[in-house]
Amino acid sequence: MNFMRTWRAGLADLAIVLLAWSLAFVLRFESLERIPSEHASQYVRYLALLPLLRVSLFGAFGLYRQVWRYVGLGDVAAMVQAVLAGTAILALVDLLLDDRLPRSVLALEGLLTLGGLAGLRFLSRAWAERRARPGAQAVRTVVVGAGDAGELLVRDMRRHPDRGFAPVAFLDDDPAKLGRSIHGVPVLGGRADMGEVARRVGAALVVVAMPGAEAAVRRSVVRRAVELGLDVKTLPGLGDLLQDGAVTTEAIREVPLEDLLGREVTVTDEALLATLTGKRVLVTGAGGSIGSELCRQLAARAPSLMVLLGHGENSLYHVESELRARYPALALETVVADVRDDAAVRAVLGRARPDLVVHAAAHKHVPLMEANVVEAAANNVLGTGVLARASRDMGVARFVLVSTDKAVRPTSVMGMTKRAAERLIQDLAARDAGKTVFLAVRFGNVLGSRGSVVPLFQRQIRDGGPITVTHPEMRRYFMTIPEAVTLILQAAVLGQGGEILLLEMGAPVRILDLARRLVRLSGLHEDAVPIRFTGVRPGEKLFEELSVSDETARPTDHPQVFALRAAHPPGAEVWDRWLADLRQATGVQDAARVRTLLQEACEGSGATDRETAPLDGGADDATRSPA
To answer: What CA–CA distance (Å, rounded) separates 4 from 526?
Structure first.
């Protein structure tokens, strides 16, 4: 097949060369009849040499390896080089033979040959693209960004109509581009004109093609498209494009989850995190959503040793396999153990001698922990105590507890266990000032984690609904997994001991609004998937908080991270007695006593009437939300 295609191309080029040679003489002497006899003999003599010379050079310069459907400027450059080389050789032969060919004939023949080669190939490309125009099923698409990325993207859409994109308009805020056309697609307005332009051209999809723009700008375009009820997709950021390859329709992806936050994503201070290089690090809960991302980000900063500790061997195995493949030089140890096992924990710490322990292992599912009070307390509180005291005794320099906003005025068992764990860490920091630096990191719900509401909503949308929302006024703080992990690592470096560090998380997001955005980002109209309110679950609050009144905040060296310190840290004797009581109660599986002790540890907790207000109409009402 390739052989036949090459022969057909060669014959076509041969015809172009012969035609160019004849036209050059006609243009020089105005007609074949007016060619002087000495030049007529030259015309005939070179009819044998010239086609053989030209076609041989075309092959040598790679013209027969070109795919005409995708011919571009790089291919034209190869044509120019081949034609110039042929003209130079022809002039040299003429000089050696003293044949005195008219120089104008040589120049005209070269120009005509080049024009014929390029014209034939570009006509072939235009014909192929015309035959492959998008079908009726292609989505009419508005491309936001008429720069290099947008141009390349539309070009690829034109070349591959089978991928289902039919570009019908550009949007760009550069007034110089307004009214112009790129690959036949007009620039019809700026970003503010999205609604009007989409209606005018009948578009159903917006593709954000601004990889070099600030994240806030890209997110504003996404939010506007969602508000208009348009499906929206995006190109990756510039860094990802440089890493992954060219701008094509294959690079188009779903809008990333962080665009649902409605705020700026946390800035990573790489100079700060560079201090982790060469450290010995242990991560608990290493197989979980947060723990595994912790391991990835720590591994990228070249610790001298990383220990993965967890209770689920399958998830640990997957994380270990990924890290060994990506970082073959990394010293890595994987340990299957329970943080409540004092002997096992001390054995691991004694062997690894970590500089930093990040404690991410915890039971986090709120309703499940309501039904498993003893297990929640034993794992989240007593397990934290075992690991923290062992870290102190083994000389660990820094210990970071991963906490949650549910620890603030908690109403759930899970929140109470995390608040108790925070206070336990503060107690150890107060007793052992100057030894191990104990810190806690508090943040909101994590988008995309295993327990996050986002994967649940996405699954419900794929199944056609209904989407289950507990209450129309339920609100939560959200962050992405990489963002949460960045906060943890930066806190590990920034904290001075005894603080609880938290991220500036903006305003909380209403869960109902999040569900609606996900529906629209899935390319569906908001009414296409019903939403059913199920009622507030045991232990849940309508609103989460990030701090309590007796905690004072101070800035840190990172503009988006703040440190909280309790005005009245717990007393040593009180906590020793409380922990002894908790150990005794969990040991005999006394769930009622454990719950009481947790409430004592979280003195002052309790939701307001507004937070626990029942849902009007009952838990089973399948209604739309109020406007």
So the answer is: 54
DSSP letter at 614 equals P
Give the pair of three-digit tokens for residue 401: 């507890």
Q: How far is CA 222 from CA 38, 102, 478, 482, 563, in A?
A: 72, 63, 18, 21, 33
pLDDT in tens, 10-63: 788 888 888 887 788 777 776 666 766 666 677 777 777 788 888 888 888 888
Please report, as a single letter, which amino acid is at residue 511. I
Domain parsing of the chain, residue ranges = 2-131, 139-255, 276-452+477-508+548-587
All residues at 6 or more sequence positions from 110 whose CB lies less than 8 Å from its CB, including other chains: 83, 84, 86, 87
Q: How many other C-beta atoms are found inside a 10 Å radius of the C-beta of residue 115? A: 14
At residue 282, the 3 state secondary structure works out as strand
**Nearest residue to 561 (alpha-carbon basis) of 619, 483, 508, 498:** 483
Residue 68 to residue 553: CA distance in whole angstroms: 66
Q: What is the pLDDT of residue 70?
A: 61
Q: How far apart are CA 154 and CA 149, in angstroms?
A: 9
Report the CATH fold assignment for 139-255: Rossmann fold (3.40.50)
Residue recorded with tokens 């130079």: 88
CATH tag, 276-452+477-508+548-587 = 3.40.50.720
List beta partners, residue 552. 565
Question: Do β-strands 475-476 and 509-510 pair in parallel, antiparallel, or remain unpaired?
Answer: antiparallel
**Intrachain domains 139-255 and 276-452+477-508+548-587 with the same fold:** yes
Contact 19, 119 (CB under 8 A): no
Q: Which two tokens stand for residue 259?
A: 């665009």
Write the DSSP assignment of 535-592 as a string of letters: -PPTT--SS--S--TTEEEEE-SSTTEEEEEESSPPPHHHHHHHHHHHHHHHHTT-HH
Determine how β-strand 500-503 pairs with β-strand 467-469. unpaired
Q: Is 488 helix (H, G, I), strand (E, B) or coil?
A: helix
Write out the two tokens for 470: 């507990």
Burial of residue 416 (number of CB atoms within 10 Å: 0-12, 13-18, 19+): buried
163 burial type by CB count under 10 A (0-12 exposed, 13-18 middle, 19+ buried): middle
Q: What is the pLDDT of residues 499-512, one digit of tens each?
A: 888 776 666 677 77
- How far from each other are the two terminal CA atoms of the chain, in whole angstroms? 63
Hey, which bits of 298-425 come out as E strands?
Answer: 305-310, 332-336, 356-359, 398-402
Q: Which tokens sit at 130? A: 């015309």
Distance CA(594)–CA(203), nearest Å, equals: 59
Sign of CA dihedral 302, 307, 309, 315: positive
Contact criterion met (CB below 8 Å) for 284 and 337? no
Q: Are 502 and 442 in contact (CB under 8 A)?
A: yes
pLDDT in tens, 187-240: 999 988 999 999 999 988 888 888 777 767 877 888 788 778 787 877 654 344
Backbone dihedral angles phi then psi of residue 206, each to the nearest 5 degrees: -115, 130
Bond before 466 cis per omega within 30 degrees: yes
The pLDDT of residue 371 is above 60: yes
Alpha-carbon distances of 397 from 189, 400, 425, rounded to whole Å: 57, 10, 14
The dihedral through the CA atoms of 24, 26, 32, 37 has a sign that is: negative
Residues in the chain: 627
Are the C-beta atoms of 154 and 182 separated by less than 8 Å? Answer: yes
Which amino acid makes up residue 185? V
